Amino acid sequence: MAEITKFNLEESEMPRQWYNLAADLPNPPQPPLGPDGKPITPDALAPVFPMNIIEQEVSTQRWIDIPEEILEILSLWRPAPLYRARRLEKELGTPARIYYKHEGVSPAGSHKPNTAIAQAWYNKKFGIKRLTTETGAGQWGSALAFACSLIGLECKVFMVRISFDQKPFRKLMMATWGANCVASPSPETQSGRDILEKTPDTPGSLGIAISEAIEAAVGDSTGGTRYSLGSVLNHVMLHQTIIGLEAKKQLEKAGEKQPDFVIGCTGGGSNFAGLSFPFVCDKIHGADISIIPVEPESCPKMTRGPFCYDHGDTACMTPLLAMYTLGHGFVPPPIHAGGLRYHGMAPLVSQAAVEGLIEPRAYPQLKCYEAAVTWARTEGFIPAPETSHAIACAIDEANNAKEEGKERVILLNWSGHGLMDLMGYDAYFQGKLSDHALPQGDLDKSLESIKDLPKPEVRKSGKW
Amino acid sequence: MAEITKFNLEESEMPRQWYNLAADLPNPPQPPLGPDGKPITPDALAPVFPMNIIEQEVSTQRWIDIPEEILEILSLWRPAPLYRARRLEKELGTPARIYYKHEGVSPAGSHKPNTAIAQAWYNKKFGIKRLTTETGAGQWGSALAFACSLIGLECKVFMVRISFDQKPFRKLMMATWGANCVASPSPETQSGRDILEKTPDTPGSLGIAISEAIEAAVGDSTGGTRYSLGSVLNHVMLHQTIIGLEAKKQLEKAGEKQPDFVIGCTGGGSNFAGLSFPFVCDKIHGADISIIPVEPESCPKMTRGPFCYDHGDTACMTPLLAMYTLGHGFVPPPIHAGGLRYHGMAPLVSQAAVEGLIEPRAYPQLKCYEAAVTWARTEGFIPAPETSHAIACAIDEANNAKEEGKERVILLNWSGHGLMDLMGYDAYFQGKLSDHALPQGDLDKSLESIKDLPKPEVRKSGKW
Fold first, then answer.
1. Between A246 and A28, where is the model more confident?
2. Which residues of chain B fall short of a pLDDT of 50?
3. Mean pLDDT of A304-310
4. Which of A302, A309, B132, B247 is the most exposed place for a label (fewest CB within 10 A)?
5. Between chains, do B168 and A426 touch, taking CB under 8 Å as contact?
6. Does A427 touch chain B (CB under 8 A)?
C-alpha cells in the first residue's frame, strides 16, 4: 500500500480550542433584535439557554477552550478520519485530489453530535436537568438524544408529525437512547393544542415544533429545563469548527499546503461552517481558496434570497436575526435532503457571504442523487441526501480541473451517512423524484411577509 | 484527556497476512464428504468456487499473504478501532477493563465486508464476471454488493422473501451499490420455480435461497459466474482473522499483555472466528484465556446440538461438513438477530470446541436486548441484535469480576451496528419480544432427520 487513503489523528492531536470566526470577520454579524427592534441583551435569552451558552453566543474571543470532559466524549468518534477519495478520482479521471472529512462515524451518523455533546455538557454544568428541542426528519433530535444519554440529562424532542409517522427510524434511535419523542403538534403545549384544535390533521412543521420546544422549556416552573438548537446560532457554528481544525492538521499529514476548494452543504449552516471557518480565516489573511456552501435549488436562501432581518421560526418566537432568508413563512418543497429545508442561514455564514468570503451555489435534487450513487459505487460509503449536495459540487470542480488540466485540492465535508435515508434512494431509482426548482412567484410571495421587518446595514469590506 | 478510549492503528500497521487456525489445531477439521460418503476433492468444488479460493479452503498453511489490492480496499475502514468501554465499566462499577473491536465502521456496517472484499477480488482475478449469493436479513448480501461494486463484478442476491418484503433497507443498500436483488424463491431458477408452483405463498428460507444461488452460479453456461458464501467455510474464517490480528496489536498499545476473556456472537461463526482464532493459537501454546462463542438460546447448535456430519443447506446441495448442528431442516424461531439463525457451525470453530479450546454459551433474546440498551446509553453506538449476544456475555463477566474483586481484561467483537435493525428495538421497548427457548422435543425432531448421516470421529486432544 504505497498510497494512503485515510489520514487519522491520535486523540492527543485533537484540537483543544474551538475557533470563533466572529473575531476575524471584517464586519461581525449584526446583533439579534427584539420585538421592539432594538438589540436584545444576553439576559433576554436566559429563560431559553443557560448563561454559559449565551456567553459563547455573544463572544468575539478568537479561541475558546474545549473542556476536557467534552473532548473525552467527542473522542468516542473523533478525530474523524480525513479520506482521500482515490477511487472517485480514478472514476472521474481527474488530476484533482479530493479529500473528504467523514463525519458519519459518530454514533448518530452525522456531524450533529459535535454541538449536541457540547450543549448538553454546558447545560448540565449550569444545573439544568432537561433539554427540549425540535426535529424534522430526526437527525438533530437523535444527536441530542445521544448526547443527553451519555451526559445524563432528560431529553424531550418535538418531531414534525409527518416525519414522526413516515420516517420512524430516527425516532427509534431516540427511544433507544432514552429520549421522549412526541409528534408535533402535540397536546402537551398550549401552542400545540391551539393548532390541533384548529387543524387536527396537520402534518406539522419545523416552525410549530420550535414553538412547542421553546414553550416546554420556558414553561417549566422549576427552572430546570432549557431549549437546544442544532444549527443557525453562533455557538453551534463554534462547536462545529473542530471539523475544520482537524482537517487542517490532516491535510498537512497528507502533504497538502492548502485546499483550492472547501465545500459543504448548507441547511442552517452548521456543517459547512464547521469545516470552512478555519479556512475562511486563512482567506481573510490572504489565502487563495474558493469556499463554497451548497444549497438545494428548492431552498435557495443564499443564491436567491435577500440578506435581511428575519425570525428563525415560523411562529416568530425567536429574535430577529440578520441573515439570508426566504422568509420565515417559506414552505420548502418535499426534497429528501430534509436537513437543508430551512428558510434561513446562520448569521455568521450569512455575513461571510456578504463579505464575499464564500461563494454560494445551488444544486438540483436529481444531480445530487446521481452524484451520491457515483460516490457509493466508488468510495463505498452511502452518503446522506444532504451530503450529496457537497459531493455534486466537488465532482463538478474535479471535472473542471480535468478540463483545465490543473491539479486541484478539493476538500469536502462528508456530513453524514445515508443509512437512515434509503427510501430517498429507492424513490430516485424508481424515477419518482424531481428537481423541485422554485418558481420566482412563490419566492416573491414568501418574501412579501418580511418586507416590513428592520433592514440590516450591508457592511461589506471588499473582494477577497 | 489522560485516559485514551480509542486505540487506532495506522494503515501501515495493518496485518499483511491472514492466520489459518487449521495449521495449529491439534486435530484439524475433518474433510467434507460427497454424496458417496467419501471426502470430496477440490475439483468437485470448481463449478461453485474459483480455484484460488478453493486452495485457501483446503490450505493448512499457517500464514497466508493478503494481496496488496485487498489491503488497499480494506483500508477504507480498517484498521478498525479498538475501544475501551470506559463508560460501561463505570456504569457497571466493575474492576474489569472491557475492550471492543468496532467492526461497525465498514460501509456495510458489519464485519462481513472483510471476506466479501477478499472473495470478490479472488473471483475477479480468476476471471469471473459475476457472483451469486443468498441473504437472509441482508447483512451478507449488502456486504457482497458493496464489494462487487468497488471491485467491478456483477452481483446477484437471492434474498429470503419474508425479509425482502418486511425489511427493505438492506435491499435498498444493495440497489445503491448496483446489485440485482430478487426475492427467493424466484422464477429465475428451476428450484425456485418448483417451490413457487407448489407453495406460491411461501415466505422462503435461507436453504431455498442457497439452492437458487448455487444453481444460478453453476448453471451459467459461459462459466463466468461463481457462488459466494459469507460464513461457515474455512476461507471465510481465514479472511476474518484480520480482526483478531489487529486487536492483538491494539491491546498491546493499550498496555495489556493478554485478554482473560475473548467473546463473540456466533451464527455461522465468522465474526467470532475472526476475533478469536489468533487467541485460540495463543491458548494452544499455553495462554490462559477463556474464549466464548455466544449463540442464541433459540438456535443453540454448540450448546445443545451434536457434533456430526450435516449439510450446510436445507436442500442438501452442499457437501457434508463435520460440525455442531441442529439438523439442516431446523427452522429457528423468529428472533431479531437474523444473522444467528443458522442451523450449523463452521467446521473450524466446531473442531476448536471439540478440542475444548472454546467454551460456548447460549443467551436468551430479552437479556441480550437489555444489554444492548445499556450499551447504547453508555457507549453511544447502537449495536446490532447479533452483537448484543457478545455484549450480554461481556457484561456478565464484568459483573463476575466485580463480585470476585478481580481485574479482568475482556475483549469482545462489536460485529456491527444496529441502525438497520431498529424495528427490533421498537418491538423490545413495546414488550412484544419473548425469549423463544427451544423445546427439547422440537430439537429431537429436527435431529431425527440427520441420524443416518456419516458420523465424524470425535478427535480431542485434551484440556487447555
1. A246
2. none
3. 96
4. A309
5. yes
6. no
* This prediction's pTM: 0.96
For helices A168-176 and A139-151, the axis angle rounded to 10 degrees is 0
Residues of B in contact with A5 (CB under 8 A): 11, 72, 75-76
Query: Which chain A residues have a beta carbon less than 8 Å from that of B71?
Result: 1
Q: Which residues of B, range 152-211, sit inside 8 Å of A by Cβ? A: 168-169, 172-173, 175-178
Q: Is the complex ipTM higher than 0.90?
A: yes
Distance from CA of A225 to the nearest CA of B (A): 21
The CATH number of domain B6-14+64-109+234-450 is 3.40.50.300 = no
pLDDT digits (tens, 9 = 90+) for A406-460: 999 999 999 999 999 999 999 999 999 999 889 999 999 999 989 999 999 877 7
Picking from B6, B107, B425, the nearest residue to A75 by CB comes out as B6
Contacts of A146 in chain B (CB under 8 A): 380
Q: Given a cut of 90, is residue A89 above it in pLDDT?
A: yes
Beta carbons of B377 and A8 less than 8 Å apart: no
Does residue A464 have a pLDDT over 70?
A: no
Distance (Å, whole) CA B76 – CA A342:
33
A8/B6 CB distance under 8 A: no
Among A327, A313, A322, A310, smallest CA distance to A446 is for: A327
Query: Any idea where the domains of chain A sit in the sequence?
Result: 6-14+64-109+234-450
> Looking at residue B335, what is its pLDDT?
81
